[in-house]
């Protein structure tokens, strides 16, 4: 017997109907009407309910957005029962496409970071050579994986670098409640050939890197030294914690170094301590200048 759990979301018009096991392999689906839902017999049936506006299928849940003609308290139990009966009677949730790419077995494990709102998911293969940060789903045209991850209602920000993905969550959920769901989704997505990063972005990155190299040569000597110190001594350390630090500027008149915090470093409660006690002191020592001051422009 199928057992559905009903969970509220941050959006009062959307409820999640959760299964005990995952119901999709590596993809998320969004259907706005019955014609769009040809891949999902279950979604098509749900659209016969007059209050169903949108159906989302991902991971271990079905999300339903309602029109305002009803309240969820009046219909949610009946909807859950209908889904349970549909599954128990052998109904199909998603029609699996043929000729899917073969799985490429990988391992994914979660690592805690100094930022309690961020978790680092380490993958047993290279994902990208350049750090990429996404603040919202509108920025994810170049990363299908990031786009899918943002469909989880608790995902706030995503940072991808080398062989890991840092996910920053909203405070609505504890990591104990969502880590397995995210880890399993990422693993299945990559194993089934899902695209982590679109090739068009890689081309853009290569152009940006050439621009950065040209800009580096035009910088003053102190700025170049600061960048080299950050690259050699700081970035490897923060990458181990699921984050990144990027040089923004150096103002000679005030001795101020401005940096950008990314990934788990962004919004981390200990970032100020790290900047002052770690990075700032290192720069003071290595540049032999006690007046150096480090600021994060997005702290």
UniProtKB/TrEMBL annotation:
Residues 4-90, 108-193 form the Scaffold protein Nfu/NifU N-terminal domain. It holds the Pfam family NifU. One of its GO terms (molecular function) is iron ion binding. It comes from the Bacteria. One of its GO terms (biological process) is iron-sulfur cluster assembly. Belongs to the NifU family. This is NifU family protein. It comes from Flavobacterium muglaense.
């Amino acid at each position: 017997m199928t057992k559905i759990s009903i969970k509220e979301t941050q959006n009062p018009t959307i409820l999640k109907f959760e299964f005990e096991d995952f119901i999709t392999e590596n993809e998320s689906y969004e259907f706005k009407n019955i014609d769009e839902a040809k891949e999902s017999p279950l979604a098509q049936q749900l659209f016969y309910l007059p209050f169903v506006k949108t159906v989302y299928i991902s991971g271990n849940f079905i999300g339903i957005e309602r029109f305002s003609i009803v309240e969820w308290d009046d219909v949610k139990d009946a909807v859950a029962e209908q889904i349970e009966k549909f599954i128990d009677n052998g109904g199909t949730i998603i029609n699996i496409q043929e000729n899917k790419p073969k799985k490429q077995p990988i391992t994914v494990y979660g690592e805690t970071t100094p930022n309690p709102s961020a978790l680092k998911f380490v993958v047993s293969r290279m994902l990208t050579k350049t750090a990429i940060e996404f603040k919202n789903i509108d920025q994810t045209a170049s990363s299908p994986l990031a786009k899918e991850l943002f469909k989880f209602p608790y995902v706030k920000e995503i940072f991808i670098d080398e062989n890991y993905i840092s996910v920053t969550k909203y405070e609505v959920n504890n990591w104990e409640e969502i880590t397995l769901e995210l880890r399993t989704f990422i693993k299945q997505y990559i194993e089934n050939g899902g695209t982590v990063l679109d090739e068009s972005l890689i081309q853009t990155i290569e152009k940006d890197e050439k621009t950065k190299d040209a800009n580096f040569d035009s910088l003053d000597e102190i700025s170049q030294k600061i960048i080299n110190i950050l690259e050699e001594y700081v970035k490897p350390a923060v990458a181990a914690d699921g984050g990144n630090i990027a040089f923004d500027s150096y103002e000679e008149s005030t001795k101020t170094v401005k940096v950008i915090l990314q990934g788990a470093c962004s919004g981390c409660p200990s970032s100020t301590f790290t900047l002052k006690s770690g990075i700032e002191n290192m720069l003071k020592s290595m540049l032999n200048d006690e007046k150096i001051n480090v600021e994060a422009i997005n702290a």
